[in-house]
Each structure stands twice: as structure tokens, then as C-alpha cells.
Amino acid sequence: MESSKEDKARQAEVKRLFRPIEELKRDFAELNVVIETDMQIMVRLINKFNSSSSSLEEKIAALFDLEYYVHQMDNAQDLLSFGGLQVVINGLNSTEPLVKEYAAFVLGAAFSSNPKVQVEAIEGGALQKLLVILATEQPLTAKKKVLFALCSLLRHFPYAQQQFLKLGGLQVLRSLVQEKGTEVLAVRVVTLLYDLVTEKMFAEEEAKLTQETSPEKLQQYRQVHLLPSLREQGWCEITAHLLALPEHDAREKVLQTLGALLVTCWDHYHQDPKLSRTLASLQAEYQVLAAQELQDGEDEGYFWELLGSINSLLQELR
């Protein structure tokens, strides 16, 4: 009998906590609480960012909050529909490094795997503005975010890749990685190049598998003459020199890019005594680390895989 009383008391408590939605709405209305849609929030944030009466702190806070919303593909497309994307792109022209940085932060999230937004961004001049920031003196934190936005804009978008090459994008990246203290950017650049090279290869392979003779995307990729440009502009040597970086993660990225460039850069790599010495020294280092992994019971672990990459490169370059 006692337990049924307890049940009833519990049910009453649950009912009290979970009131009907109409009741909640009525209460909210009485409190004058307005529940905004994502679109309304984004319009408000863009207005805050774009207002001449907003302080620098308010503008940065608006961009910071906006970045959270544009991760969602639909929201990023809505940002486009009311002209908010162009406002953020224009933010890249700001004389304030922090505005450039946070505008790029928003754009990187909005471009990510969102073809509609990528196309509009190219038409809105985003690519030129991003390259200008990377080519001029700016704080490293701003360049990091701008490079992230550039990567998001170029990935899976061959037309943007074509424009990037035409606008001298590889020269801009080359200058960037050769500056002192930009190792963290160099690894990201090398990873981007690896992604672009392999993306084009996958497009070719996919066309073979599906037996489509000239899918539109493949035709676009064939207009992107990336490998010859990389070779002409000294990326064979730049990538090889980056193997001297001390972090395992950086070396892993450089090794995979060396592998992707191997056919294009074979003669460079074959005649580079410094590269042979670096690979031999890394081979010795990773043999020890891979053996340690095995002793710790980790079969075919991280260092074993790195050693495999080094061994196959040495094999190819014999």
C-alpha cells in the first residue's frame, strides 16, 4: 500500500516538473523571454559585428559566437542568404589583426564541406583576401586561422584550387613556410598539399571504377596542374627539408607528402644526399622505438607504421 502512495507522489512530482509545452510557453511569454531561432541569432550577431558603434571586444565576441552556429551546414547557408557571409569576408580587410583572425575563424567553419558557401566565397573575393593576409606581416595566430580558412575553401573544390594556382598561392605558401618560427604552419601547409594531390588522384580512380569517361568534377580536377607547379616552385626540396622537424606527428605528415610527391620529385630526392642521411637517421631512431613498442605488447603500433613509411621511401629511392 505504501509503495502505491510513493508511486503517486512520484508521478505528481514528475507532472510538476514536466509541464505541458503550452504552459511553459505561457510562462515564458509572461517573463518576456523570446526564444530566438538560429537565423535570428546570426542576424543579430552580424549586425553587432557590422555596427560602427560596437567596440572591438564586442565585434570579436560576435564573431566568436557566430563561429559556433556556422558549423552546421544549414546555418552556414542561411548566413549566405541574408548577406552575412560577405560581411564576414569583408572583415578580412580590417586593419585590426584580431578582426582578421576571427573573421577567418568563422569562414573556416562555414566553408568546411559546404560547396554552396565555397562557391559564394570565391565569387565574394575571399581567396584573394586570405592570400593577401598570408603574404603580409601579421601575427602568427591570425595566419593560423587564415590558413585554416584557406584549407577549408580549397578542399574538394577544384575550381578554387585552379584560382589558387593562378593567383600565385603556391608562392605565398612557400614564403610562409620559409619564414622563421612558422614550423607549425609549415606542417599544415604540407598536409594541405598532400590532401590536394591525393584528392585529384582519388577523382581519377573513382572515374575509372565508375567507368564514367568525363565526369564534370574530374574535368575540373584535370584543369588543376598542381604537381608540375609544385615541382617548378621548389616544393620537392622544401618538403624534404621539413623532415628535419623534431615532432613525430610533423614527420608523419611530411613523410606522407614525400610519398605523394615521389613520382614527381623522384630525381630531386634520388640526388639529395641530405634527404638520404635524414631518412637513414630516422630509420635508426624508429627501429629502436618500434622495438620498444613491440616489447610493450603493441603490435604494429604508431612507430612501426612510421618505420614502414621510411623503409618504403628508402627502397623507392635506391
TrEMBL record:
Its main location: endoplasmic reticulum. It is found in: Endoplasmic reticulum lumen. GO terms for cellular component: endoplasmic reticulum lumen. Transmembrane segments: none annotated. The keyword Transport applies. It comes from the Eukaryota. This is Nucleotide exchange factor SIL1.
